[in-house]
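Entry for copper (II) ion complex. Fields follow.
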Amino acid sequence: MPVPQQLEPTRRTSDTDYYEIVQSPATVEIIPGLRTPIMGYNGTFPGPTIVQNPGRRVVVTHKNALSVPTVVHLHGGTTPDDSDGYPTDFVLPAQTYGTFPTMPAMPAMPGMPAMSDPDAVVTRMQRDYTYPPQPRAGTLWYHDHRMAFTGPSVYRGLAGFHIAHDTEEQALPLPRGARDVPLMIADRAFASDGSFMYPAIDPTMRTTPGVDKPWVNGVMGDVILVNGAPWPVMKVDTARYRFRILNASNARTYQLALQNSSQGFTQIGTDHGLLPAPLHQDTVVIAPAERFDVVVDFSGHKVGDEITLVNRLGSDSTAAVMHFVVARATKDSSSIPSTLSRTSPITPSGSMTRRTMKFHRGGQGEWLINDQAFDPSVSQADVPAGSTEIWTIISDFHHPFHIHNATVQVISRDGKAPGRYDQGWKDTVFVNKGEKVQLAIRFSDLKGRFVFHCHNLEHEDMAMMATFRIT
Ligand SMILES: [Cu+2]
């Protein structure tokens, strides 16, 4: 099983690490014997991993060597608005691009006319993205966020890990080094020539957004990739491993379980870092863009044992994810402390602003929030910097709700206590069909224009996104 390479800074100053990434076309071997054209950060899929150490600012210079505009979003990041990857803040390619002489025109789609965004900050060929020191350790990830074309851009490879550490986490005796492994799970479909089969209406990704009709609820593939490899095998020692599981799929939700293991998972963290205390999970249900930080203990196994990570929501080829083969007996000095992280649960109070956000289908097949298609000029919520609000998400379909530049605690589901996958600080919360999920959202103190949206990428591309402003 491949593990994405950690990117080395191009230079370091007293408080900042500088990185450079070229977004470029490449051809890689994913299915043995076949060649798959990708769009990759540094030509790889997943992209290289960026590690952000405590107190360090990170600046990533992204160069666009592709033939289409790109936008980079650090998912889960506390980020100033000019580096957050607002969906019209394009990095234009070198070549003249369609109808984008100076101002980006957003293409028309069902339920949404073509429009311009006069507030977009567009650059050509490159852009510096600045990430201040992150408030908590966490498994963040960076991915493309281009207006109306995020689905095909991520599908073709524009996604990578960004791991933030903090001193609280670093002091713990958790598995580390080669036993702290990020797992990016993503499903893909392949054509017989090895190319990705994304059912785009416009495969050039230049003019017409959207997917063929059978896929409007979300694009799913029949091959499960982990770190870019199909159903990989990982050799492990008889020891504890920390797996930072990211669901980078466009639309597929997984119920992960370990076959031939009586252990299950010890969940230690979620989107925004460690839980207050470890939590045993027999299975983990993970929606698109969510992260689960788990420890799996192989010490009870013998050399030669094989443990399969399965997907109980899958069938046939999507029922297996990857395999672990116990290859070496070893001693293990790691442990899982009973207290992991100090967090303060939010208690909703009468003084907190309350809002309701209804995620639903429109009459022309578009996806809407509170009856509105995405419009950069309309803010659906102006929130004071650093404030906490109570939002109720209502849904007509299953939608993973995601909000930028904020951290979220689940308060209730349908008036009942949060579910077993809702613990800790999150940025992506799965909302089931017909469900009413109440969230406490603590906004960053970095002011500006941001978005919240559905993280089913085909819904997001079809306008299920809204602007909010931190004021
Ligand atoms: Cu959705």
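NOTE: Residues 150-155 form the longest helix (6 residues).
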